Amino acid sequence: MDPAVGLVLCLSCLLLLSLWKQSCRNGKLPPGPMPLPLIGNMLQLGVKNISKSLSNLSKVYGTVFTVYFGRKPTVVLYGYEAVKEALTDRAEEFSGRGSLPVAEKANKGQGVIFSTGNGWKEMQRFSLLTLRNLGVDKRSIEDCVQEKAHCLVEELRKTNEAFLTLGRQRRWKNGHRHVS
Q1: Is residue 175 helix, strand or coil?
Q2: With contact defined as beta carbons under 8 Å apart, do 76 and 64 qualify?
Q3: Is 26 strand, coil or helix?
Q4: Coil, strand, or helix at residue 72?
Q5: 60, 34 in Cβ contact below 8 A?
Q6: What are 51-82's pLDDT values in tens digits?
Q7: How far apart are CA 93 and CA 84, in angstroms?
Q8: Neighbour count for residue 65 (Cβ, 10 Å)
Q9: What are the two backbone dihedrals, phi and then psi, of residue 177, each rounded to the nearest 5 degrees?
């Protein structure tokens, strides 16, 4: 057997294996165009006008679909209704964050900003509890504004009463109405 034929055969097997693995992984992802093994759907997405490409894909696959950027699957929500449903009705399913490999390596998966999953939820809960215990968010800015507005209204009432009293003294002299 020629080495070139063996190489082509091996590459073909790897390509088919990669395609099979990607199709098995798609169990929970929405439908989308079939990705190429290493570059995903990059050739199907127009780099110059990506919104038009996504619009065309939404006409074929619906408002929620999956595209692959390289080997990384990305769920696309196209349109107001799809985003609204995802953020209100299915908030728990869409609450995850994407991973940033550089940040994960630098922080070893820890920290508030770049962590994901259960670690992120626990860290967020701890941070918010600690900040509340330290006095943050005890009084909202709305309460402070309302208190200052109430004080201002009271001062204006006092000023208005003094002004009205002064006006009454000037208008009535010796029991008779005086026109100034």
Answers
A1: coil
A2: yes
A3: helix
A4: strand
A5: no
A6: 898 899 999 999 999 999 888 888 899 999 98
A7: 13
A8: 21
A9: -75, 130
